[in-house]
Structures are given as structure tokens and as C-alpha cells.
Fold this sequence. Notes:
Elements: H1 12-15, H2 20-30, H3 39-45, E1 69-71, E2 78-80, E3 84-88, E4 91-94
Antiparallel strand pairs: 1-2, 3-4
Organism: Catellatospora bangladeshensis
Region (Disordered): 1-34
Pfam families: DUF4193 (PF13834)
Amino acid sequence: MATDYDAPRRDEADLGEDSLEELKARRVDNQSGSVDVDEVDLAEAFELPGGDLADEELTVKVVPMQADEFRCSRCFLVHHRSQLAGERNGEPICRECA
């Protein structure tokens, strides 16, 4: 709210002399007609199309590690031999972790 610093100030005695109607009018002016809306509540109510995956089952075929692959001893991901950077303490390390 903007404040006019050039306006004459009222002392405590003048404040006590305000009429009831003036006080009610000021209170109504200060109150906002809009209601605060929580953005989180709005976001929870919004659903993306195809977003309900509660009834879906994930089916993935697991393939065993191939002869030309290795498991990195740091990130524990399976990589192709071309990604082998070296070995530390006898354990293979991929290029990303090296």
C-alpha cells in the first residue's frame, strides 16, 4: 500500500475521534474481495491425459549379461566392453566413472 509522506500526520488524540462509520469504511476498503488460493491444491486437481497408470503393469524382459559386457564396480551399470576405462583393485571401471 502506498504511503503519502507529505500528508499531515494525525496524533493519538485525533485517532480516537474517528466516527464509527469512518472506521467501518476503512475496514471495508482494506479487505480484499479475492480469496487466496493455494497453488498446490490447484496442481493436485489437475490431471494429465493418460496420467492414471494405477492399473498398468510393467513387463520387462530381463536379459542376462552378455559376454562382451561388464558391470562397473562404481555405478553398477552394465556397459559394453568398448566403455571399459580400466580396472582398479581388480574391478572394472567404465569411462564415465573413471
